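Quick one, C-alpha cells below. Sequence please?
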C-alpha cells in the first residue's frame, strides 16, 4: 500500500497539452522546421530536454536545441492565459488528501508556469509539496521527477497519476504503479501497454471510482 499520491500537473490536472503542441509548432517554424501537429502531440509529456531530439531529430537538437526551448517558452507564455483546469481537479485532490495520502503535485515545468497552474486548481492549499524544473536534471521519461516528488515528503511508497505514457515509464523505473486519465489524448490501449494499471475517461470518473483503486486508503 502507498502513502504518497504523486499527481502529474500538465495535461492531467490542467488542460495544457494542445497549448504545448501549438507552442512547439510555432517555435519550430521560427527555424523553418515543420513537423505535423499529430507528431508534435505524441511527444508532449516528455520534457523539452528530450522533446527536440525526439520530434525534430538529433540534427535539430544539435543545431537549435537551446534556441528552440527558448522559443517554445516565449510562444507558450502567449497562450498560458487561455489554459483552464480540468473539471473536478480540485475535488479529486481534496478527496485523495482526505483519504490520508501525502499529496505531491509533480511538474518539471518552469517555476512561473507551475505556479500559474497550481493557482488554477488551488493546489497549494492541498498539496504537501510540489516540484518544478529546479528539482530535476532529466525530465520524463527519466525517473528524476517521480523520485524528487517522493523525496519532497519523505514518502515510503507512491502511486503516480498521469495522462501520458511518459508518466508511466518514469514511474516504472522506480517500481511505482501508475493510474491514468485520458486527458492527454492517449488511448486506453496505449496507456495500458505503457504499464498503467487503470485508466479513467476523466478526473470526475476517477474520483467516483477511487474506492476500487490503490488510492482508496493510505497505508499510514
Amino acid at each position: 500500500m502507498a502513502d504518497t499520491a504523486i499527481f502529474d500537473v500538465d495535461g492531467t490536472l490542467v488542460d495544457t497539452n494542445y497549448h504545448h503542441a501549438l507552442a512547439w509548432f510555432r517555435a519550430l517554424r521560427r527555424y523553418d522546421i515543420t513537423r505535423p501537429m499529430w507528431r508534435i502531440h505524441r511527444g508532449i509529456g516528455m520534457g523539452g530536454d528530450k522533446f527536440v531530439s525526439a520530434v525534430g531529430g538529433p540534427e535539430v537538437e544539435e543545431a537549435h536545441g537551446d534556441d528552440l526551448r527558448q522559443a517554445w517558452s516565449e510562444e507558450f507564455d502567449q497562450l498560458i492565459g487561455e489554459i483552464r483546469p480540468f473539471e473536478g481537479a480540485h475535488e479529486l485532490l481534496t478527496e485523495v488528501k482526505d483519504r490520508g495520502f501525502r499529496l505531491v503535485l509533480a511538474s518539471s515545468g518552469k517555476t512561473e508556469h507551475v505556479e500559474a497552474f497550481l493557482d488554477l486548481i488551488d493546489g497549494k492549499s492541498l498539496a504537501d509539496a510540489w516540484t518544478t524544473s529546479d528539482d530535476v536534471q532529466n525530465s520524463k521519461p527519466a525517473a528524476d521527477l517521480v523520485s524528487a516528488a517522493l523525496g519532497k515528503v519523505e514518502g515510503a511508497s507512491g502511486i503516480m497519476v498521469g495522462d501520458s505514457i511518459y508518466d508511466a515509464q518514469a514511474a516504472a523505473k522506480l517500481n511505482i504503479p501508475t493510474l491514468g486519465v485520458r486527458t492527454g489524448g492517449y488511448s486506453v490501449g496505449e496507456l495500458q501497454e505503457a504499464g498503467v494499471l487503470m485508466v479513467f475517461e476523466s478526473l470526475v470518473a476517477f474520483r467516483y471510482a477511487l474506492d476500487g483503486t490503490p488510492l482508496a486508503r493510505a497505508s499510514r
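The chain has two domains: 4-15+84-212, 17-82. The CA atoms of residues 136 and 145 lie 6 Å apart.
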